[in-house]
Automatic annotation (TrEMBL):
Domain of life of the native organism: Bacteria
Signal peptide: none
SUPFAM superfamilies cross-referenced by the UniProt entry: (Trans)glycosidases (SSF51445)
Protein name according to UniProt: Malto-oligosyltrehalose synthase
NCBIfam families (UniProt xref): trehalose_TreY (TIGR02401)
Sequence ranges assigned to domain Glycosyl hydrolase family 13 catalytic in this UniProt record: 24-702
CDD domains found in the cross-reference section: AmyAc_MTSase
Higher taxonomy: Bacteria, Bacillati, Actinomycetota, Actinomycetes, Kitasatosporales
Pfam families for the chain: Alpha-amylase (PF00128)
Name of the gene this protein is made from: treY
Amino acid sequence: MTPERREPSAPALPPAPRATYRLQLQPEFPFEAAARAVPYLASLGVSHLHLSPVLEAVPGSPHGYDVVDHGRVREELGGEEGLRALSRTAREHGLGLVADIVPNHMAMSPRHNHALWEVLREGPKSPYARWFDIDWEAGDGQVLLPVLGAPVGEVLDQLRVDGDVLRYHDHAFPLREGTAELPLPELLDAQWYRPAWWRLARTELNYRRFFSISELIGVRVEDPEVFEATHAVILRLLREGVLDGLRIDHPDGLADPTGYLERLNEATGGRWTVVEKILAGQEQLPAAWPVAGTTGYDALRRVDGLFADPAGYRELLAEYRRYADPRPDRGGEWAATVRRAAYRVVTHELATETERLSRVARRLCEAAPDPALRDRAPWALRTALQELLVRMEVYRPYTPADAARVVTEEAAAEARLAFTVPEEGGAVGVVRDLVIGRSGDGPDGEELRTRFAQTSSALRAKSVEDTAFYRYVPLLSTNEVGGDPGRPAVSPEEFHAYCARVQRDWPLTGTVLSTHDTKRSADVRAALAVLTQCPERWADLLARVAGAGEDAPDGQLAWAAWQTVFGLGPADGERVSQALLKHVREAGLHTAWTEREPAYEEAVARFVAAGPCGAPGKRVAALREELAPHIRANVLGSALVHLTMPGVPDLYQGTEAEYLALVDPDNRRPAAFPPADADPDADAGSGAKEAVTRAALAVRARRPDAFGAAATYEALPAEGPAAAHCAAFARSGAVVTAVTRLSLRLAEAGGWRETRLALPPGRWSDVLAPGREFTGQVAVADLFARLPVALLERVERPATGT
């Protein structure tokens, strides 16, 4: 009898993570340091380590997103052998590895980036030329390199030829063959690149970059050969079991995110992958994307919002407007602030990207067979593009059909109002038709739609995250990546609806509270959220500290500075000063990164030292101490919700204990293990955040089916006079999470009183206070007798009382 022929089965995929732990690798914290932390991290209860980028980066880089070589694991971290050793150690302790990868860009550092070096040496005929998104025609056959400290004529004597290399201070560039002996001016003209004054990047740059960062050049991973070359090492490490899953950095910058993710999913065999996609408002992740979900900023917004009081926020906003006196379009109104910031960015920081779009639109109109597209002035097409871009309320469209939904008729109607002559406003309709694919066939049409989407994502990020968030500051905790400062509060009903949708559609998505990119850590934001429950006390505090010490250079900065030290608590004044200096430069109202005003910045430093970080800051510290129980309720509540809601929670390094950090680089300092504030032996009754974290992760490990793809989510509404202050849910009938929200308002209203929570059928053990058990209708006051949070696990043995 002939045996039945069987096809070889594909190797089983490693299981999706249960919980990940983000490590920020850098020369001061290499693979060896991560390996030493493994026993501690395994004891914490996570299933995977989440590594920041591991491929070769610019020497000394503290983050690794400036990749220079996709073919090597970073030597400063320990090289590939160091990574493999970390993987072996992790597996010995039951942990897997997830790696962060950067498909969108590389470092614009020719002396470290071999592929770029070859392009600059050989020009568009280089085999590496297809790697980079360069518009050779716009640069008259040269790549603009904005590296000179002044116009070239003023620094000519600082440029020198060294063999076949052109040097300028620390910069080195290859010389085109046969040009080394030319006189310097002729030599510069003969190269495939043009060293230029750095200020020309704003308007003359002819390569795609990351946002407005000229030091990062866009990579064309839509090209199959480029994809293979830039992903070969990562794919090999996945196949060989060194890595288990991936985090994808900034997919919105790619020409075709959907196509890229489909190719990546096929190449990885369907490994667990999450994407750093910022979802605006009620925007949904594209259903066609073959990923587990996002990195979790959408979850962050909902968790934070659950602990914000909408009525108190409105009072706080009114106090902010009285105190800071911002103009409506410069920090007084959220929507107007975003719009003004977008205009600034699209006409300044992204002027070169807008100009490139305009050139493509002109070509399309001039060559169009439809006469209706012709006779459009270049300025009108540029204006139409700008007006539509600033009205984008999501980061970008992905298909022409998607573009028709997000580049709306309403936006077009508003855009036409920018034209004083109505007939010239017709350019808006022409551009909209090109963007949504109603006209403009062929390569130019495809290029315009692609570039519009890429420019839109950069504009949204720069105008909202990096500008408006620093101008509109009534409550700093809401100014977070993916956040909505115009509507910071989320009701329990909204939160439950979001969780139910995540469990149904993206059950293995990532969730986060703190990351390397958050502007304030979760614990800082949790403290700030308490201010929505006592806006009058905050206003009274500011009235008492006003005029104490150095006068503030402006009201908005003062308001933000006082909130910063309230959220952070006692800290080194230098940390606060550096964060606030970054704050005012990003805001761009009185100083900026590229147009600095030394007198203003010096005034900021004096004010911060004498006020928030001086003697008056003690009053802020006193108020923080008075509100400590309510800050604690927010910290523990947000941590427990994050660890038990649908999705795969990602813990940022150190956040299992109290973690108080500001914007990068403050939040990217090398980690210590165990964290300084961690206490592995802490009793849950002490309220230690680490104890709550360990308990929740242990439950996830014991009850994996209660939290996985097949799990269920059930909202548990409380009943009684304080029902709105209890947020509770059940996971698969096996685990119950209950947290206190708006605890200060609760105390002022008389406490829990007769409020009760109906538990699902069965007996329930209090994981955070062993020995306590509950069943049926529970008095919420009893449930929260020891802590402002409760984590219950279903048991079968008889209850012993409450």
